[in-house]
Amino acid sequence: MPFIKVQNKKLFYAQVDAETASKDGSVLVFIHGLGSSHSFYIPVMNQLATAGYSSIALDVYGSGLSVLSEGIEDPTFDTIASDVKALLEGLSIRPENAVAVGHSMGGIIVPKLALKCSLRGAVLIGPVLPKPAMAEIVNTRIRTVKKGESI
């Protein structure tokens, strides 16, 4: 499985190509939730390949195999969206051919990505809606994930 360098970050991604040519050239781009990784989508990606769809799933910066590096800012929703846009560019995938799919935290990233480029489509699966009252819970979860602990 490959890595790509975008915006001075080394991002891991998995790519599963369609078994047959897609009729419309769509590529699904999967963005996982907080504490998850690209592996969440692999079973779905394999099934999509049999139906003629190519797909990509990345480990967002600071998750899975896309480890944090010294001297680079911690990820934010906006920087993750910019990273996904740069990933598409680096893989020569036109945004007009990309359908971005986000689960949980990824459901926050997809609309931000859609504001940065003209996507073919956007799918939000159980998106979270950050509220001020939830900020401490989310921040605690982020600290826990950074430490590699489970909750």
Automatic annotation (TrEMBL):
It comes from the Eukaryota. The keyword Hydrolase applies. One of its GO terms (biological process) is acylglycerol catabolic process. GO terms for cellular component: membrane. It holds the Pfam family Hydrolase_4. One of its GO terms (molecular function) is monoacylglycerol lipase activity. Keywords: Hydrolase. Residues 26-132 form the Serine aminopeptidase S33 domain. PANTHER family: MONOACYLGLYCEROL LIPASE, MONOACYLGLYCEROL LIPASE ABHD6. This is Related to alpha/beta hydrolase. It comes from Fusarium oxysporum.
